[in-house]
């Protein structure tokens, strides 16, 4: 079970990095994309970050139960 959670954590962290890079790239370039989607990209990054942290906490919790 913890291996599945670990794999999902890696995917969630990758999603955070991808959304962050798109958002920062749009901000650096400016223009219509940034005006239309800049705030939404950072909100999406925050959501993905929350999910990743929650999964990390779940993973640590599951590892603690299995170790006892």
UniProtKB/TrEMBL annotation:
Which one Pfam family would you cite for this protein?
HIG_1_N
InterPro entries according to UniProt: Hypoxia_induced_domain (IPR007667)
Question: Can you give the residue ranges of the HIG1 domain?
Answer: 1-68
Q: Any transmembrane segments, and where? A: 6-25, 46-65
Keyword annotations from UniProtKB, A to Z:
Membrane, Transmembrane, Transmembrane helix
Name by which UniProt lists this protein: Hypoxia induced protein conserved region
């Amino acid at each position: 079970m913890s291996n599945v959670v670990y794999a999902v954590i890696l995917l969630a962290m990758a999603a955070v990095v991808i959304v962050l890079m798109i958002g920062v790239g749009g901000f650096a370039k400016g223009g219509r994309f940034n005006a239309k989607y800049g705030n939404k990209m950072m909100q999406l990054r925050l959501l993905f970050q929350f999910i990743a942290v929650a999964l990390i906490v779940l993973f640590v919790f599951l590892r603690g139960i299995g170790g006892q």
